[in-house]
Amino acid sequence: MVDVLSQNEIDALLAALSSGEMDAEELKKEEAQKKIRAYDFKRAVRFSKDHIRSLTRIHENFARFLTTYFSAQLRTFVQINVVQVEQLPYDEFIRSIPKMTILNIFEAEPLEGRMVLEVHPNVAFAMLDRLLGGAGSAPSKIGSLTEIETIIMEKIFSRALETLQEAWKTIVDIEPRLEALETNPQFMQIVSPNETIALISLSTKIGDTTGMINLCIPHVVIEPIMSKLSVHHWFVSQKKSRAPDEIHHLEQRVSKAKLPIVAELGSSRISIQEFLNLAVGDVIALHKTTDEGLEIKVGDKLKFIGSPGTVRDKMAVQIHEIVGEGVEEFNDE
């Protein structure tokens, strides 16, 4: 923005030039000098603020999917949240993680290149302890993985990567596939040390154990789809294609939901005294006759009218009528 001088400032500037306090030639030289800004080539800025915001939104969904997945697998309290999304050199990321950690190296077609899901040992071993029947606490001393422990971790994190596919669906359809599981960062060289990466840090709590899960995405891997990470594209694609996908997935999940279905023969009211005096052979009169249809409820809602019977020596109910929407159920008082 160009600074606009007031009349008093203009008069003071002209007076200073007239008196010799300021030199017009020196002012011109200062104006002509190039302004220099320091730039660190080791920390090249490849992701704009717009890209960082989009990555944050995507992986907030990833964190929610991971929370649901691990809660179901471990059957305990799990909480995962995005703490920070930043860009830094790959070498700096390697130096920042423990010498012994869980490194899930994976590919995600059609993207070319490899990415890493780094899980802090406290979190990984708490998951392992829980899966093997323990309380879900991390050991005081963490050693190398046995073959059985490696296989278990490969399975749980391979399935965890499937939630990444769901989180990225609004941008691109990817198919994450676990390629290898490493424990020593020095043996993992997926890109050059100076390559810029996006680091998504997720705070993780499993029971009483806390730690970090870091997702390392090299810039060279997602460079072909960087244009899709703009906020404009993100919102447009969300409006046009996300809604039908969400409806489809919602229909699939709802179709698998289990609901109780109850065929009610009838009801009756008796006093407490009558209830206490009930004996074998007593008959309780219901409020319905035998030729009236049975009320069939789904959950607590009346949905069908039917009649009782048997099929292959098992009790069954035949549906005669579907109760329309908006029909209220009235009980005799």
UniProtKB/TrEMBL annotation:
Instruction: Give yes or no: UniProt keyword Coiled coil.
Output: yes
Q: Recorded GO terms, molecular function?
A: cytoskeletal motor activity
One biological process GO term for this chain? bacterial-type flagellum-dependent swarming motility
Per its UniProt record, what InterPro entries does this chain match? CheC-like_sf, Flag_FliM, FliN-like_C, SpoA-like_sf
Signal peptide range in chain numbering: none
Keywords per UniProt: Bacterial flagellum, Cell membrane, Cell projection, Chemotaxis, Cilium, Coiled coil, Flagellar rotation, Flagellum, Membrane
Membrane topology listed for this record: Peripheral membrane protein
Q: Which residues form a coiled coil?
A: 10-42
Where in the numbering of this chain does the Flagellar motor switch protein FliN-like C-terminal domain appear? 252-323
Designated name of the protein: Flagellar motor switch protein FliM
Q: Which organism is it from?
A: Cohnella xylanilytica
